Amino acid sequence: MSNENSQRSAGEAALQLITSRSSVKxxxxxxxxxxxxxxxxxxxxxxxxxGRLAPWRFAxxxxxxxxxxxxxMQAAFVERNPTADAETFEREGSKAFRSPVxxxxxxxxxxxxxxxxxxxxxAVGAAVQNLWTAAQAVGLGCAxxxxxxxxxxxxxxxxxxxxxxxxxxxxxxxxxxxxAPVRPAEFADKTRWL
Length: 194
Fold this sequence. Notes:
Layout: H1 3-19, E1 24-27, H2 34-44, E2 56-62, H3 66-80, H4 86-94, E3 101-108, H5 117-137, E4 141-145, H6 153-158, E5 165-174, E6 176-179
Antiparallel strand pairs: 1-6, 2-3, 3-5, 4-5
Helix pairs in contact: 2-5, 3-4
């Protein structure tokens, strides 16, 4: 295969990964290997990043370590809902176990004369997109969750986050068993051609 054909084939494969992106609804119990997770983190770390500030941080939870997040989610939930029943309390804690691996993506922004905070936030979003695309490329899938727990002091403390760290999302990762429908690429009414 010529170099040109090889590049075209790689480009088509990359485009297919992006245009077929969809959230995983159900994960297999199979745990991705550490090497696979490190591949995803390596891809994430290559996101566009004005000033090379690397504003992203990752906390990888798998196996029993997901219990750390589960307990923190339950504590945060009880603080907001002190009269919640036991079933709802348990369900809240189960959110940490939706996938065999959970990558908590956080942002640490800083004052910079040439890189506004918004650009640093966007860089973290780009890191998540890179991680997601890499996951698909190695046969895994993702689901990006936030909700009130992303803003909870209980959760931030449990994950040993720095005072300046903000949770961008809980990225569930694993082998997909069921995925949501691919969202239509509706851009016409959101685009201005000048």
